[in-house]
Amino acid sequence: MSFSDLAPKASGTLERASFSGNAREYFGIWIVNVLLTIVTLGIYSAWAKVRRNRYFYGNTVIAGRAFEYHATGKQIFIGRLIVFVFFIVTNILSTIFPPFALIVFLIILVALPWLIQRSLRFSARVTSYRNVRFDFKGTTGGAFVAVLLGSMVASISFGILAPLSSRWVWRYVFNNLRYGDRPFATDPKIGALYRVWILPAALIVIGTLLIVGIGFAAAAATQAMSDTEMLDSMAGFSSIHWGILFVFLAYGLAGLLYRIGVRNVVFSATTLDGKHQLVSDAPRFQYAWVAISNVIVTVLTLSLMRPWAAVRMARFMAIHTGVIVVGDLGEVLSSMEASGSAISAEYLDLEGFDFGF
Amino acid sequence: MVSDGTVIARGEWQPAHSSRAVAADLQEKQDQLVAVSDGTTLASGRRQEIDITPRVGSIPRRLTFVDGSVFETRDNDAIDALVSRHGGKRSGFVHRLEQFHPRLIAFTFAVILLAVGIYRYALPIMVEIAVLVTPPVVPEMIGASTLASLEKTLLRPSELPEAEQNAIRAEFAPLAKNAKGGEGAYKLLFRDARLMGPNAFALPDGTLVLTDDLVQLAKGDRQMVLGVLGHEIAHAEGQHSLRQIYRVAGFAALVMLIAGDVGSGVEDILSQGGALVALSHSRGAEEEADRRSVELMKAAGYEPAALARFFAILEEKLGDRGETSMLSTHPGTPARQAYIRDYAQQLEGAVNDP
Which stretches are transmembrane (chain A) (predicted)? Predict the structure, then answer.
């Protein structure tokens, strides 16, 4: 998908983002973060997160000005501490009284939309650009429909309705996002989302067919061929494991292509203040290449090259993101509300949700 | 009047909560810091009243005045000098550590040494603590759900004659009696699993699954089948699966906590790939289970080294003469036969000697 397809007819100046950080500088920050986290038995990790985010936000520049990350180490630390204590307490109580585990699970399930909404709001409110904070006005009900119902619909339909679910999630995020007193709005076309869905879907179908084939071949082969893991096939690396690894790769690639495709479509269908259009035009295979080679390099160097990989990805994403400014943004005012606690954001972070802006 | 201050840095000044920006200078006059544009004072305050963001790399610095207005500059060095003139030594400490300097090589080595230490010593301790505090429902839940998903995919009902199943069950009981928890703690299931070949495995809740192919491979050598079951009892008894799950999960959690951000790709590998690794046992656990099989067989009055015959068949029929290697999770088959026979003799000796 080239940029020209996405560009609106309206005339404006395209302001592309850029990333001014470099691996050399970030390596120092990263290694000190790691060292201090170990030495303080994990406590410093909260402050480490703040330094990392400040570095990445502060080096993401658009129209000559950088973003800023405002969460404090203390805020993140308290959030993490509460989540940690919660886990310990529920574990102890479940040991004494086993049904408690189920109760906690149900409570969290019910509270999940609320946690998501709070987490998005926290992320928005600790982010600023040109001295004006972002804000998020989404409701808990909205989070329930967009995230929970959406992912249910996507998984029940085996991913066939995934574009629908992506549309719900991104509409929930952007239609509730504010930059100061200016609203964002998005309405990605379902057809455009399906166009970026076809390739990953085909990849998953092909991968699944191949694994079924490999499975049959392996079944036929086990009778005759050498299989060193007879005693515990649950052990070691057998042909089944190689097959699963292959599926991970195919599914991983499909996931990357889908994620960036959706981002391109959604950003390019998003406006700020009703006229300034966001732009995302990351070539899909280039993105997948950057992501996959980053993982390989990170793993092979036992994560010592992670700073390089992180900066490389940030730079790639920045240069493929921009905004077409029509006229002038004028003076934007922010109402500066308290960001709220970091508990929900840290809880979801721990559970593997990723809603970073 | 304004011009008599010294200019510290050039940047932009912004009113509180507004995106409006004015090119401005930061000046120092007596004990006041002043943001000045075209000779007009925009904001001022004493150093103590002004919040200055700590330095991170070379991102812009923000000075927030009491009225909420902000002076932003990219001149980090000037702000550092200003901060240290006012006695703020500590704020820049972390940044000074982070600067590109040969010292970082020492830090890197320290991190590598500490990481190895955590992996070798702290992780095993954490795993043992986790096993200790795990309520019994957890292994039961893991066992039940693993079995349920295996039943759906790989396992079919056994086609062995009922009489043969009952005979094996009857001989299995004395074997399990001497294991921790006694006979009731272990449940033997017969299943047909073509894809797994001749196989047996243990679930964390003490459920053992024996495949038809293994019974057929034994060709009536019941002692050998019991030897294999002894090995699987040992896996369940030693909670090897639970330990492995905790080891993998603990490893992933430590990497994510310490490295902070490893990228979503590596996170996926740690969590999903970790689940795959969690299904296998470590080499140490395999050896422990082999030895425990010898003990259990002996205690039940069976042939202690019968398990070795299973490995002999594997070696002969399937050509597995693999040496134990660094990468394999299992000891090589010939090596296993040797130490099983040695251990059986050792136990015999211990009985005969005194």
Answer: 27-47, 77-94, 100-120, 141-162, 197-221, 242-261, 287-305
Locus of tokens 């200019």: B7
Task: Identify whether the C-beta of residue B31 lies closer than 8 Å to the C-beta of residue B82.
Answer: no
Euclidean distance between CA atoms A100 and A159, whole angstroms: 34
Task: Give residue B109's pLDDT.
Answer: 94
Domain co-membership, B67 together with B147: no
Please indicate, yes or no, if residue B119 is contained in any of the structural domains: no
CATH number, domain of B17, equals 2.30.29
Lowest-confidence region among A84-88, A256-260, A302-306, B332-336 = B332-336
B186 shares a domain with B329: yes
Would B120 be classed as within a structural domain? no
Q: How far apart are the first and last CA of chain A?
A: 23
On whether both B61 and B205 belong to a single domain, the answer is: no
The alpha carbon of residue A28 is apart from the nearest alpha carbon of chain B, in Å, by 4
Q: Do B57 and A26 touch (CB under 8 A)?
A: yes
Establish if B81 belongs to a structural domain.
yes
Asked whether residue B159 falls in the same domain as residue B294, the answer is yes
Q: Give every strand in the sheet of B32-37, ordered side by side.
A: B40-46, B32-37, B22-29, B6-14, B70-73, B61-64, B51-52
Question: Does one domain contain both B48 and B183?
Answer: no
Q: How far apart are CA B229 and CA B123, in angstroms?
A: 30
Last residue in a domain, options B98, B122, B151: B98
Residues 6+ apart with CB under 8 A from B3: B39
Residues B268 and B324 in one domain: yes
Q: Is A109 exposed, middle or buried (0-12, 13-18, 19+ CB in 10 A)?
A: exposed
Residue A180's alpha-carbon distances to A30, A132, A151, A336, B18, in angstroms, are: 32, 6, 30, 8, 8
The CA distances from residue B150 to B116, B180, B242, B281, in Å, are 36, 26, 18, 18
Q: Which two tokens stand for residue B23?
A: 């090119």
Judging contacts by C-beta atoms under 8 Å, the chain A residues touching residue B72 are: 131
Give the best residue of B12, B14, B55, B56 to mutate against chain A (max A CB count within 10 A): B56
Q: Which amino acid is at B198?
A: P
pLDDT tens profile B177-229: 888 888 888 999 999 887 777 788 888 888 999 988 888 888 888 899 999 99
Instruction: Specify the length of chain B in residues.
Output: 354
ipTM, two decimals: 0.79
Q: Identify the pLDDT of residue A220.
A: 57
Contact A257, A203 (CB under 8 A): yes
- The mean-pLDDT minimum among A160-164, A197-201, B234-238, B334-338 falls in B334-338
- SS3 category, B43: strand
Domain count, chain B: 2
- B269: domain range? 134-352
Residue B306 within any structural domain of the chain: yes
Residue type, A334: S
Mutate to test the interface with A, among B12, B17, B142 (most CBs of A within 10 A): B17
User: Would you call A334 and B17 a contact, using CB atoms and an 8 Å cutoff?
Assistant: yes
Amino acid at B265: G
Residue of B62, B262, B280 with shortest CB distance to A235: B280
**CB contact at 8 A, A250 and B250:** no
> In this structure, are B145 and B91 located in the same domain?
no
A vs B, Cβ pairs < 8 A, gives: 218
A266 vs A343: CA distance, rounded Å: 29
Whole-angstrom distance, CA of residue A334 vs CA of residue A287? 34
Q: Which of A57, A230, A248 is the closest to B272 by Cβ?
A: A248
